[in-house]
Amino acid sequence: MYDVIIIGSGPAGLTAAIYTGRAQLKTMVLEAVGIGGNAALTDQIDNFPGFPFGVDGSDLMDSFRKQAERFAVEIKMQEARELKKEKDGIRVITDQAEFLCRAVIIATGAKRRHLDVEGEESFLGRGVSYCATCDGAFFNGLSVAVVGGGDTAVKEAIHLSDIASQVYLIHRREGFRANQTALNKLREKKNVSFKLNRIVQKIEGNEYVTQLLLKEVNTKEQEILEVDGIFVSIGLVPDSSFFQEFIDTKDGYILTDTNMNTSQPGVFAAGDIVYKDYRQVATAVGDGAVAGIAVIDYLQE
Ligand SMILES: Cc1cc2nc3c(=O)[nH]c(=O)nc-3n(C[C@H](O)[C@H](O)[C@H](O)COP(=O)(O)OP(=O)(O)OC[C@H]3O[C@@H](n4cnc5c(N)ncnc54)[C@H](O)[C@@H]3O)c2cc1C
Q1: Amino acid 246: pLDDT
Q2: CA 151 to CA 123: how far, in whole Å?
Q3: What's the pTM value of the predicted model, to 2 decimals?
Q4: Contacting residues for 219 by C-beta, under 8 A, at least 6 apart
Q5: Is the C-alpha dihedral spanning 64, 67, 73, 77 positive or negative?
Q6: Ligand 1 test: best mutation among 31, 38, 152, most atoms within 8 Å of CB?
Q7: Which tens digits make up the pLDDT trace of 177-232?
Q8: What domains are there in the chain, each with its CATH number?
Q9: Which of 15, 64, 170, 174 fits 288 for a cystine, CB–CB 3.0-4.6 Å?
Q10: Whose CA is nearest to atom 51 of ligand 1?
Q11: What 8-state DSSP symbol labels residue 156?
Q12: For residue 82, which phi and psi values (nearest 5 degrees)?
Protein backbone atom coordinates (compact mmCIF):
# COMPACT_ATOMS: atom_id res chain seq x y z
CA MET A 1 0.00 0.00 0.00
CA TYR A 2 1.41 3.39 -1.02
CA ASP A 3 0.49 6.60 0.77
CA VAL A 4 0.38 8.47 -2.52
CA ILE A 5 0.71 7.60 -6.19
CA ILE A 6 1.55 10.47 -8.51
CA ILE A 7 0.68 9.97 -12.17
CA GLY A 8 3.10 11.87 -14.43
CA SER A 9 6.75 12.85 -13.88
CA GLY A 10 6.72 16.38 -15.31
CA PRO A 11 7.46 19.48 -13.18
CA ALA A 12 4.09 19.18 -11.38
CA GLY A 13 4.39 15.47 -10.55
CA LEU A 14 8.03 15.57 -9.43
CA THR A 15 7.48 18.69 -7.30
CA ALA A 16 4.54 17.02 -5.54
CA ALA A 17 6.77 13.94 -5.04
CA ILE A 18 9.54 16.04 -3.44
CA TYR A 19 6.99 17.35 -0.90
CA THR A 20 5.34 14.01 -0.09
CA GLY A 21 8.64 12.09 -0.11
CA ARG A 22 10.23 14.63 2.23
CA ALA A 23 7.20 14.26 4.56
CA GLN A 24 8.10 10.53 4.65
CA LEU A 25 4.96 9.43 2.83
CA LYS A 26 5.47 6.26 0.79
CA THR A 27 5.41 7.84 -2.66
CA MET A 28 5.45 6.37 -6.15
CA VAL A 29 5.53 8.29 -9.44
CA LEU A 30 4.20 6.56 -12.57
CA GLU A 31 5.50 7.74 -15.95
CA ALA A 32 4.28 6.48 -19.32
CA VAL A 33 6.74 8.08 -21.77
CA GLY A 34 9.82 9.92 -20.44
CA ILE A 35 10.85 11.33 -17.07
CA GLY A 36 10.52 15.11 -16.92
CA GLY A 37 7.48 15.51 -19.16
CA ASN A 38 7.25 18.33 -21.71
CA ALA A 39 9.75 20.45 -19.79
CA ALA A 40 12.49 17.86 -20.43
CA LEU A 41 11.92 18.25 -24.17
CA THR A 42 12.62 21.99 -24.14
CA ASP A 43 16.22 22.89 -24.96
CA GLN A 44 16.30 26.29 -23.28
CA ILE A 45 13.97 27.48 -20.50
CA ASP A 46 14.53 31.19 -19.89
CA ASN A 47 11.68 32.00 -17.54
CA PHE A 48 12.09 29.52 -14.69
CA PRO A 49 13.36 31.49 -11.69
CA GLY A 50 16.83 30.78 -10.32
CA PHE A 51 18.62 30.47 -13.66
CA PRO A 52 19.73 33.96 -14.77
CA PHE A 53 21.09 32.63 -18.07
CA GLY A 54 18.38 30.06 -18.72
CA VAL A 55 18.54 26.31 -18.24
CA ASP A 56 18.37 23.25 -20.48
CA GLY A 57 14.97 21.61 -19.81
CA SER A 58 16.36 18.11 -19.64
CA ASP A 59 19.06 19.16 -17.10
CA LEU A 60 16.43 20.96 -15.01
CA MET A 61 14.15 17.93 -14.92
CA ASP A 62 17.06 15.63 -14.13
CA SER A 63 17.64 17.75 -11.00
CA PHE A 64 13.94 17.45 -10.08
CA ARG A 65 14.20 13.65 -10.43
CA LYS A 66 17.38 13.43 -8.31
CA GLN A 67 15.81 15.63 -5.62
CA ALA A 68 12.70 13.40 -5.49
CA GLU A 69 14.84 10.23 -5.34
CA ARG A 70 16.82 11.73 -2.45
CA PHE A 71 13.55 11.54 -0.49
CA ALA A 72 13.05 7.84 -1.38
CA VAL A 73 10.45 8.44 -4.09
CA GLU A 74 10.04 5.39 -6.34
CA ILE A 75 9.65 6.09 -10.06
CA LYS A 76 8.15 3.38 -12.29
CA MET A 77 7.86 3.49 -16.09
CA GLN A 78 4.22 2.42 -16.35
CA GLU A 79 1.14 4.02 -17.88
CA ALA A 80 -1.88 4.56 -15.61
CA ARG A 81 -4.96 3.18 -17.36
CA GLU A 82 -7.71 3.26 -14.72
CA LEU A 83 -8.56 4.56 -11.24
CA LYS A 84 -11.03 2.75 -8.96
CA LYS A 85 -12.32 3.88 -5.59
CA GLU A 86 -12.23 1.03 -3.04
CA LYS A 87 -13.19 0.70 0.63
CA ASP A 88 -9.59 0.95 1.82
CA GLY A 89 -8.17 3.38 -0.75
CA ILE A 90 -7.79 4.01 -4.46
CA ARG A 91 -6.70 1.35 -6.92
CA VAL A 92 -4.44 2.50 -9.77
CA ILE A 93 -4.39 0.09 -12.69
CA THR A 94 -1.48 0.44 -15.12
CA ASP A 95 -0.46 -1.31 -18.34
CA GLN A 96 1.62 -3.72 -16.20
CA ALA A 97 0.29 -3.93 -12.64
CA GLU A 98 -2.20 -2.73 -10.02
CA PHE A 99 -1.38 -0.66 -6.93
CA LEU A 100 -3.41 0.42 -3.92
CA CYS A 101 -2.84 3.82 -2.35
CA ARG A 102 -4.44 6.29 0.07
CA ALA A 103 -4.24 9.32 -2.24
CA VAL A 104 -3.58 10.04 -5.91
CA ILE A 105 -2.17 13.14 -7.62
CA ILE A 106 -2.92 13.33 -11.35
CA ALA A 107 -0.18 15.33 -13.12
CA THR A 108 -0.49 13.96 -16.64
CA GLY A 109 0.02 17.26 -18.49
CA ALA A 110 -1.12 17.72 -22.06
CA LYS A 111 -0.11 16.37 -25.46
CA ARG A 112 0.49 18.16 -28.76
CA ARG A 113 -2.66 18.74 -30.81
CA HIS A 114 -2.71 17.06 -34.25
CA LEU A 115 -3.68 18.69 -37.55
CA ASP A 116 -5.88 15.72 -38.50
CA VAL A 117 -5.03 15.88 -42.20
CA GLU A 118 -4.22 13.15 -44.71
CA GLY A 119 -0.60 12.01 -44.47
CA GLU A 120 -0.07 13.20 -40.87
CA GLU A 121 -0.31 9.74 -39.33
CA SER A 122 1.29 7.80 -42.16
CA PHE A 123 4.40 10.05 -42.26
CA LEU A 124 4.80 10.24 -38.46
CA GLY A 125 8.54 9.80 -37.75
CA ARG A 126 9.22 10.05 -41.51
CA GLY A 127 9.03 13.83 -41.76
CA VAL A 128 6.12 14.59 -39.42
CA SER A 129 7.10 15.62 -35.89
CA TYR A 130 5.59 17.40 -32.86
CA CYS A 131 8.89 18.34 -31.19
CA ALA A 132 11.69 20.35 -32.81
CA THR A 133 13.96 19.85 -29.80
CA CYS A 134 13.61 16.08 -30.11
CA ASP A 135 13.74 15.66 -33.90
CA GLY A 136 15.23 18.90 -35.29
CA ALA A 137 18.73 17.45 -35.68
CA PHE A 138 17.45 14.99 -38.33
CA PHE A 139 16.78 17.95 -40.64
CA ASN A 140 20.30 19.37 -40.79
CA GLY A 141 20.62 21.32 -44.07
CA LEU A 142 17.08 20.39 -45.17
CA SER A 143 13.91 22.37 -45.66
CA VAL A 144 11.16 22.27 -43.01
CA ALA A 145 7.81 23.83 -42.16
CA VAL A 146 6.49 24.72 -38.72
CA VAL A 147 2.71 25.03 -38.31
CA GLY A 148 1.28 27.33 -35.63
CA GLY A 149 1.09 30.90 -34.39
CA GLY A 150 1.81 30.69 -30.67
CA ASP A 151 4.94 30.94 -28.53
CA THR A 152 5.88 27.32 -29.01
CA ALA A 153 5.63 27.46 -32.83
CA VAL A 154 7.81 30.58 -32.96
CA LYS A 155 10.34 29.06 -30.53
CA GLU A 156 10.49 25.88 -32.61
CA ALA A 157 10.98 27.87 -35.83
CA ILE A 158 13.89 29.79 -34.21
CA HIS A 159 15.44 26.53 -33.04
CA LEU A 160 15.07 24.94 -36.49
CA SER A 161 16.47 28.00 -38.32
CA ASP A 162 19.88 27.13 -36.83
CA ILE A 163 19.70 23.58 -38.20
CA ALA A 164 17.64 23.54 -41.40
CA SER A 165 18.56 25.35 -44.64
CA GLN A 166 15.05 26.84 -44.94
CA VAL A 167 12.17 27.19 -42.46
CA TYR A 168 8.59 28.10 -43.43
CA LEU A 169 6.24 29.23 -40.68
CA ILE A 170 2.69 28.37 -41.72
CA HIS A 171 -0.08 30.13 -39.79
CA ARG A 172 -3.79 30.24 -40.52
CA ARG A 173 -4.07 33.92 -39.54
CA GLU A 174 -2.22 37.17 -40.24
CA GLY A 175 -1.52 37.98 -36.56
CA PHE A 176 0.41 35.92 -34.00
CA ARG A 177 -0.38 35.08 -30.37
CA ALA A 178 3.34 34.63 -29.77
CA ASN A 179 5.56 36.85 -27.65
CA GLN A 180 6.71 39.91 -29.66
CA THR A 181 10.40 39.61 -28.72
CA ALA A 182 10.57 36.02 -29.98
CA LEU A 183 8.67 36.98 -33.12
CA ASN A 184 11.12 39.82 -33.85
CA LYS A 185 14.03 37.43 -33.38
CA LEU A 186 12.43 35.03 -35.89
CA ARG A 187 11.81 37.84 -38.40
CA GLU A 188 15.54 38.66 -38.36
CA LYS A 189 16.45 35.15 -39.50
CA LYS A 190 17.50 35.11 -43.16
CA ASN A 191 16.36 31.54 -43.83
CA VAL A 192 12.81 31.91 -42.46
CA SER A 193 9.77 32.68 -44.66
CA PHE A 194 6.23 33.28 -43.44
CA LYS A 195 3.24 31.56 -45.06
CA LEU A 196 0.34 33.43 -43.47
CA ASN A 197 -3.42 32.89 -43.91
CA ARG A 198 -2.68 29.35 -45.00
CA ILE A 199 -3.69 25.94 -43.72
CA VAL A 200 -2.14 22.56 -44.43
CA GLN A 201 -4.59 20.35 -46.33
CA LYS A 202 -2.43 17.33 -47.04
CA ILE A 203 1.05 15.95 -46.32
CA GLU A 204 2.55 14.07 -49.26
CA GLY A 205 5.69 12.10 -50.04
CA ASN A 206 7.12 8.72 -50.94
CA GLU A 207 9.08 7.04 -48.16
CA TYR A 208 9.52 10.43 -46.45
CA VAL A 209 7.63 13.73 -46.65
CA THR A 210 8.40 15.68 -49.83
CA GLN A 211 5.65 18.32 -50.00
CA LEU A 212 2.62 19.94 -48.37
CA LEU A 213 -0.61 20.99 -50.00
CA LEU A 214 -1.55 24.42 -48.61
CA LYS A 215 -4.76 26.43 -49.01
CA GLU A 216 -5.00 30.22 -48.75
CA VAL A 217 -7.93 30.76 -46.36
CA ASN A 218 -9.35 33.86 -48.13
CA THR A 219 -8.81 33.15 -51.84
CA LYS A 220 -9.02 29.32 -51.39
CA GLU A 221 -6.09 29.04 -53.79
CA GLN A 222 -4.01 25.90 -53.38
CA GLU A 223 -0.23 25.78 -53.39
CA ILE A 224 2.41 23.07 -53.18
CA LEU A 225 5.25 23.69 -50.72
CA GLU A 226 8.27 21.42 -51.09
CA VAL A 227 9.71 20.47 -47.68
CA ASP A 228 11.51 17.54 -46.07
CA GLY A 229 9.74 17.85 -42.76
CA ILE A 230 6.80 19.39 -40.95
CA PHE A 231 6.66 20.31 -37.25
CA VAL A 232 3.12 20.62 -35.94
CA SER A 233 2.85 23.12 -33.08
CA ILE A 234 -0.82 24.10 -32.80
CA GLY A 235 -1.46 23.75 -29.10
CA LEU A 236 -2.12 21.10 -26.53
CA VAL A 237 -4.84 18.61 -25.66
CA PRO A 238 -5.27 17.17 -22.16
CA ASP A 239 -4.38 13.57 -21.47
CA SER A 240 -7.67 12.73 -19.82
CA SER A 241 -9.10 9.50 -21.19
CA PHE A 242 -8.44 7.26 -18.17
CA PHE A 243 -10.03 9.42 -15.46
CA GLN A 244 -12.81 11.26 -17.28
CA GLU A 245 -15.52 9.01 -15.77
CA PHE A 246 -13.99 9.23 -12.29
CA ILE A 247 -13.67 12.99 -11.65
CA ASP A 248 -15.22 16.23 -12.89
CA THR A 249 -13.55 17.79 -15.92
CA LYS A 250 -14.17 20.69 -18.27
CA ASP A 251 -13.02 20.50 -21.91
CA GLY A 252 -10.96 17.47 -20.84
CA TYR A 253 -9.08 19.41 -18.12
CA ILE A 254 -9.55 18.58 -14.40
CA LEU A 255 -11.59 20.94 -12.23
CA THR A 256 -9.91 21.59 -8.86
CA ASP A 257 -10.32 23.93 -5.92
CA THR A 258 -7.46 26.20 -4.79
CA ASN A 259 -5.86 23.30 -2.86
CA MET A 260 -5.84 21.11 -5.98
CA ASN A 261 -8.64 18.84 -4.64
CA THR A 262 -10.69 17.25 -7.42
CA SER A 263 -14.35 16.22 -7.12
CA GLN A 264 -13.20 12.80 -5.78
CA PRO A 265 -11.96 12.80 -2.15
CA GLY A 266 -8.31 11.70 -1.98
CA VAL A 267 -7.68 12.54 -5.63
CA PHE A 268 -5.71 15.71 -6.39
CA ALA A 269 -4.50 17.23 -9.66
CA ALA A 270 -1.61 19.52 -10.61
CA GLY A 271 0.02 21.16 -13.63
CA ASP A 272 -1.10 21.46 -17.24
CA ILE A 273 -3.92 18.92 -16.80
CA VAL A 274 -5.77 21.35 -14.49
CA TYR A 275 -8.49 23.62 -15.92
CA LYS A 276 -6.77 27.06 -15.79
CA ASP A 277 -5.47 29.84 -18.01
CA TYR A 278 -1.68 29.63 -17.79
CA ARG A 279 0.47 26.58 -18.39
CA GLN A 280 4.16 26.97 -17.62
CA VAL A 281 6.90 25.12 -15.72
CA ALA A 282 6.65 27.64 -12.85
CA THR A 283 2.85 27.29 -12.60
CA ALA A 284 3.11 23.48 -12.74
CA VAL A 285 5.68 23.57 -9.93
CA GLY A 286 3.34 25.80 -7.88
CA ASP A 287 0.43 23.40 -8.39
CA GLY A 288 2.64 20.42 -7.54
CA ALA A 289 3.77 22.01 -4.28
CA VAL A 290 0.17 22.80 -3.28
CA ALA A 291 -1.03 19.29 -4.20
CA GLY A 292 1.85 17.73 -2.23
CA ILE A 293 1.08 19.75 0.90
CA ALA A 294 -2.67 19.13 0.52
CA VAL A 295 -2.04 15.36 0.36
CA ILE A 296 0.10 15.53 3.52
CA ASP A 297 -2.76 17.33 5.33
CA TYR A 298 -5.41 14.99 3.90
CA LEU A 299 -3.56 11.88 5.11
CA GLN A 300 -2.98 13.35 8.57
CA GLU A 301 -6.70 14.01 9.08
C1 LIG B 1 7.95 22.78 -26.89
C2 LIG B 1 7.56 23.34 -25.55
C3 LIG B 1 8.29 24.41 -25.03
C4 LIG B 1 7.96 24.93 -23.76
N5 LIG B 1 8.71 25.96 -23.27
C6 LIG B 1 8.46 26.44 -22.02
C7 LIG B 1 9.26 27.47 -21.44
O8 LIG B 1 10.20 27.97 -22.06
N9 LIG B 1 8.96 27.89 -20.18
C10 LIG B 1 7.94 27.36 -19.44
O11 LIG B 1 7.74 27.76 -18.30
N12 LIG B 1 7.14 26.39 -19.98
C13 LIG B 1 7.37 25.92 -21.25
N14 LIG B 1 6.58 24.93 -21.77
C15 LIG B 1 5.44 24.44 -20.98
C16 LIG B 1 5.89 23.44 -19.90
O17 LIG B 1 6.72 22.46 -20.48
C18 LIG B 1 4.66 22.81 -19.26
O19 LIG B 1 3.81 23.82 -18.77
C20 LIG B 1 5.05 21.88 -18.12
O21 LIG B 1 5.94 20.87 -18.56
C22 LIG B 1 3.81 21.26 -17.50
O23 LIG B 1 4.20 20.36 -16.51
P24 LIG B 1 3.27 19.14 -16.07
O25 LIG B 1 4.04 18.41 -15.03
O26 LIG B 1 1.92 19.63 -15.75
O27 LIG B 1 3.07 18.25 -17.38
P28 LIG B 1 4.09 17.57 -18.39
O29 LIG B 1 5.40 18.25 -18.40
O30 LIG B 1 3.33 17.49 -19.67
O31 LIG B 1 4.29 16.11 -17.78
C32 LIG B 1 3.25 15.19 -17.75
C33 LIG B 1 3.84 13.79 -17.72
O34 LIG B 1 2.78 12.84 -17.46
C35 LIG B 1 3.01 11.69 -18.24
N36 LIG B 1 1.74 10.96 -18.40
C37 LIG B 1 0.65 11.35 -19.12
N38 LIG B 1 -0.33 10.43 -19.01
C39 LIG B 1 0.16 9.43 -18.21
C40 LIG B 1 -0.38 8.20 -17.74
N41 LIG B 1 -1.62 7.81 -18.06
N42 LIG B 1 0.39 7.41 -16.94
C43 LIG B 1 1.66 7.81 -16.61
N44 LIG B 1 2.22 8.97 -17.05
C45 LIG B 1 1.47 9.78 -17.82
C46 LIG B 1 3.53 12.25 -19.55
O47 LIG B 1 4.22 11.25 -20.29
C48 LIG B 1 4.44 13.38 -19.06
O49 LIG B 1 5.76 12.92 -18.85
C50 LIG B 1 6.88 24.38 -23.02
C51 LIG B 1 6.14 23.31 -23.55
C52 LIG B 1 6.47 22.78 -24.80
C53 LIG B 1 5.66 21.63 -25.34
Answers
A1: 86
A2: 25
A3: 0.83
A4: none
A5: positive
A6: 38
A7: 888 998 999 999 999 999 999 999 999 999 999 999 999 999 999 999 999 999 99
A8: 2-111+236-300 (3.50.50.60), 114-232 (3.50.50.60)
A9: 15
A10: 38
A11: H
A12: -160, 145
